[in-house]
Structure formats: C-alpha cells, structure tokens
Design goal:
16 helices, five-stranded parallel sheet, two-stranded parallel ribbon, single chain, Rossmann fold, Helicase, Ruva Protein, domain 3, Zinc Finger, Delta Prime, domain 3, about 55% helix
C-alpha cells in the first residue's frame, strides 16, 4: 500500500481525505482494519508501522503526530528514527499509513522542515492542507461546487456568493449548511440565493440579535432568538453565536491591524470585517466576554445532559 503525510491548518479537508480512504475498507472488518493512534511512543509506533498483512483485507492506520513537531524536543533518538525510516520504506502491501499534523487555525504556523522526522515523512505522499484565504473567494467557490457535486446538488453563482459572505472560509460550516440546503431543495437539485437566505443565518441576523442584548433590549432579543430557532437547532445557534462573538473579541482587541490582517485572523470576509468594526465601535469588550462566558456555560450544561429545557436555558443565559 502506501505512506502518507498530511499536514496543515485546514483540519476539515484533512478529515475528508482520511474519510475517503476509510470508506474503501471492508465495512465488515472495520473495527480491525482501521486504527488511530495519538502521538504514540516509539515502541507502539514501530509496532503499528510493522503491522503484518491481515486475512480480512487492507488496513488503514492514522498516526496523529502533532506532538512530534511541537517545541524543540526531539521525540525520537537517531536510532529510532532510522528504524522508523526503514519500517516506512518496507511498508506491508496491505497497509496504508497516514501521519497527520493539524496546525492551529489562523495562526500561520508552519512545520519545522529541519526536523529529521519531517525529512523522513516528506519523502512519501506529502500534502499540505492550508486554510483558504478569505479574499480568495474563487478557491472557496470551487470547493463548494466540488463538495456540492458529491452531494448531488448544484449552486447558482449568487447563492455561493451569499454563502461565502455569511460563512467566510469555515468549510465544516459550509458542509453543514449544504446538507440543510439539499433537504430544502428536494426534489430539485439546484440551490438558489433565496434558499440560502431562507435557511442560513447571516452575520447580520446574528449581529441584530447580539446588538439587542448589548443595548439591554432583552425582550426584543428573545423574540429575535425565537426567529433564529426557525433556522438552527439551539446548540447550532449557540455555536454560531459564540464563534461570532469570539471573532468580534478578536476584532476589538486587534483593531489596530489592517482589514486584510483581521480577515486572516478571523476567517471573515474583508468587507464584513470593515462593516463589523464600524458596528462594534460603541460595544464594550467586557460585555462581549461576559456574554460569551454565559453562552459557553449553558452549552456545556446542555451537552452534559444537565439541562431539562435547552431553549429556556439559552434564554436565561441571554437575559442574565
């Protein structure tokens, strides 16, 4: 089979690539043919790399290797690296090995190519998965079209433009919205701008909702929240609001940077960055932080099954 080295800060594309490989395995033996190891020590790693052929077909082994490349520590001795190199060079015919390094998103970090392990892995099927730049909308548009094709749907150009304006470069969120749009469009297969406007929450929708909270207009905020629930499940809504508030906090704390730099930091479209900065001028950062903490607290409560009525829990977080 083969050895692969996937790295970069677009973790969703890495996950999609691995899932594509996983889907080719025999589903009847998946528990034995698919293994994942997180930064294994030398002995465990070398055992995985030398996994003998199995009677139930091909195997796929994923090695999450972030710690191997963090800091200045050399994770392996030279003799161990030599063994790893030899094991990869003599990879069994029935085994696919994928080393994965997911870098922090929006921090512009790169792997240290001077590390010996990097030089070993880079000899094989090495592929970087970078985050799409928010200003390169054509790249994002191409990804959406290709992903849509796999789901059996197509998009009007202005529908994609609106999606990008609302979502930025968050591919995981694009995928989730596409699943909803596919259901809305059925039995048709083409997604229009109106469908996107009807089903997807825009930055403006979220801003209107949060602005009402900031103005202490809690009754109006709760009414706006109920409208948003028509488009998203409470947990999805919580996640979207918290993501947005996190970006706003970044904008407020880094406001001295240019719109392009802020766009790279937040994943927001440059136009949206300028628009949001203008709207946030009179909003104290302390209130944004407090709101985010309240929403995070209720999200944890819902996920841990401590909440009896999740909608009421969110409403309480809003009016506190």
């Amino acid at each position: 089979m083969a050895v692969y080295f996937f790295y970069g800060d677009e973790d969703y594309n890495i996950e999609l690539e691995i899932e594509k490989m996983r889907s080719k395995l025999n589903p009847d033996f998946l528990s034995m043919s698919y293994q994942v190891a997180d930064n294994p020590e030398y002995q465990e790693l070398i055992t995985l790399l030398r996994t003998p052929p199995m009677m139930f077909g091909n195997m796929l082994v994923i090695i999450n290797a972030e710690k191997y490349f963090s800091g200045n520590k050399n994770w392996f001795e030279d003799s161990e690296l030599s063994d790893i190199d030899d094991a990869l060079a003599n990879n069994p015919d029935s085994l696919d090995i994928v080393f994965v390094v997911k870098l922090p998103r929006d921090e512009n970090k790169k792997l240290d190519s001077r590390k010996k392990l990097y030089k070993i892995l880079n000899k094989y099927n090495s592929k970087e998965f970078p985050t799409f730049k928010t200003y390169k909308t054509s790249d994002i548009s191409t990804w959406v079209k290709q992903r849509g094709k796999l789901k059996g749907i197509t998009f009007d150009d202005n529908a994609i433009e609106l999606l990008i304006e609302q979502i930025g470069n968050n591919l995981r969120e694009f995928d989730g919205e596409m699943e909803k749009l596919k259901l809305i469009a059925y039995p048709q297969k083409n997604i229009t701008k109106k469908m996107v406007a009807d089903i997807c929450i825009s930055n403006q929708d979220l801003f209107n909702f949060t602005e009402l909270i900031m103005k202490n207009e809690k009754d109006s905020a709760l009414l706006e929240f109920k409208k948003l629930l028509d488009k998203k499940h409470p947990l999805e809504l919580l996640s979207a609001i918290q993501t947005m508030i996190r970006k706003w906090i970044l904008l407020k704390t880094k406001s001295s940077l240019s719109a392009i730099e802020l766009s790279k930091l937040t994943g927001m479209h440059e136009f949206v960055v300028k628009q949001t900065l203008q709207k946030l001028k009179k909003t104290p950062i302390a209130e944004l932080v407090k709101l985010k903490e309240n929403l995070f607290e209720v999200e944890c409560k819902i996920k841990s099954a401590e909440s009896i009525d999740m909608i009421s829990e969110v409403e309480c977080a809003i009016i506190r």
